[in-house]
Amino acid sequence: MKGREILGNFATFLSSNAYLDLGAKKHVRRLSQLKDIYTDKDVIGTILKREDPVIYEVYEMPQPFTETDLLVNITVLHPGKVGEELYMTKGHFHEEPDTAEVVIGLQGSGVLLLQNREGVLEEKPVMKDWISYSAGGWAHRVVNMGTEDLVFLAISGANIIHDYETAARLNFK
Q1: What is the CATH number of the domain that holds 56?
Q2: pLDDT tens-digit series, residues 29-44
């Protein structure tokens, strides 16, 4: 993929700072970018008049973009609420329905919400030393259930294309 950096082999401590030292790109997701996933629009408006809080950050390692490579990213999902809803990631399907994703908890506690295209819902734990698996064909979103940052490692094929639109339409309900 043109313009994409190639990292190659690496070993590192599992932390966002260590990832940044290796050249990871930090992507910040704020409430203004995620307002469509929360239901209480009045509360969103009130919050955004005061501030635009950071909901989560993704530390994305540069990798070559081939079908056999892996994306290995760290996400830091902050604690908090928008109205009665806990902070959560945007959530997505993978356009290639057979593409899975692994989530490994590093700190904090939360859940991996899963939903297939037929609307079936499942929840799996995301906490330190736990591995949760999102099979192909399932949308996934992580929710921070605790009072500290929920930090997790996500591993998927580098060839994934996120389908946010279908996940937003179903919205894990």
Answers
A1: 2.60.120.10
A2: 999 999 999 999 999 9
